[in-house]
Specification:
Length: 138
C-alpha cells in the first residue's frame, strides 16, 4: 500500500480548514505545497479561495491570474475569478469570468446561477432565461 502524496494531503487539509472558516490556517498549510510545487493548480486555487475568504480580492485575483496563465481553461479558477470580481463590484468583469467558466466547464452550477442573476439585473432577459434553464438542468 503506497503512502498518500504529501502535497495532496496538505491541499486537502487546507480545504478542510477553509470549510471551518480558518483561512489563515489554510494559507499556512499551503506554504509548503507552493514551495515544493509553485505551479500546483489545486494549491493555487485553494490559496485564491482563502484570500477571498480573508477579503483580499486583489490578492486572490493575482493568484488566479498566475493559475490561469498556467491553465487558461480551468473552469473552477474562472468561476473563482468571477466570485472575486463580484466581491469588488466589477460586475462586467465578473460576467465575463463566469461566461468563460461555463464555456470551459458547462457543469459549473454556481457560475450559471451567478450569470442568471447578473443577466437578470442588467435586463438581459433572454440570457437570464437561458442561464436559469441551465441551472434547472444541473
Amino acid at each position: 500500500m503506497s503512502a498518500a502524496n504529501p502535497l495532496h494531503v496538505a491541499i486537502q487539509k487546507a480545504q478542510r480548514l477553509l470549510q471551518q472558516n480558518q483561512a489563515d490556517e489554510a494559507l499556512e498549510a499551503l506554504n509548503g505545497v507552493l514551495t515544493d510545487d509553485p505551479d500546483n493548480a489545486e494549491a493555487l486555487l485553494t490559496v485564491a479561495v482563502a484570500e477571498r475568504a480573508r477579503g483580499n480580492h486583489d490578492q486572490a485575483l493575482q493568484t488566479l491570474d498566475k493559475l490561469l496563465s498556467l491553465r487558461p481553461n480551468f473552469g473552477r479558477a474562472l468561476q473563482e475569478k468571477g466570485i472575486n470580481e463580484v466581491g469588488k463590484q466589477n460586475l462586467v468583469a465578473a460576467g465575463r469570468a463566469f461566461e468563460d467558466a461555463v464555456n470551459a466547464d458547462p457543469a459549473l452550477l454556481n457560475s450559471w446561477q451567478a450569470l442568471a442573476k447578473l443577466y437578470h439585473d442588467s435586463g438581459q432577459a433572454a440570457d437570464a432565461a437561458n442561464a436559469k434553464d441551465k441551472v434547472s438542468f444541473l
